[in-house]
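Dear colleague,

Thank you for sharing your sequence with our group. We've completed the structure prediction you requested, and as agreed, I am returning the results in plain text so they can be pasted directly into your records. Please verify that the sequence below matches your submission; if there's any discrepancy, let me know and we will rerun it promptly.
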Amino acid sequence: QVQLVESGGGLVQAGGSLSLSCAASGSSFSSGVMGWYRQAPGKQRELVATINSGGRATYADSVKVRFTISRDNAKNTVYLQMNSLKPEDTAVYYCNAVLLFPTREFWGQGTQVTVSS
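Please find the predicted structure tokens below.
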């Protein structure tokens, strides 16, 4: 069975930093796209960042400069470094992985990030 397990969430004051990790098991994702989404209370799930197999990253406008996504293919793990956190970053953060041909999408269980003002 394929599993994605997030870790690193918690409570932090505005302006602080957190680092999230997502460890995948059950399949290799070295050739796929991995990313992070988040969902705040009362809002729809939104894309935070993605990274392809070659290390090219994309970011939502709201987190550009402040967040950095990276991956370690040997460890089958994707990371999200979050700096200069704002209260509006408060959400459950979900790890996502996609494989193609056929398309397969996997999700982690989520980790809570709370930023206090």
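Summary note from our side: The two ends are 40 Å apart (CA to CA).

Kind regards,
the structure core
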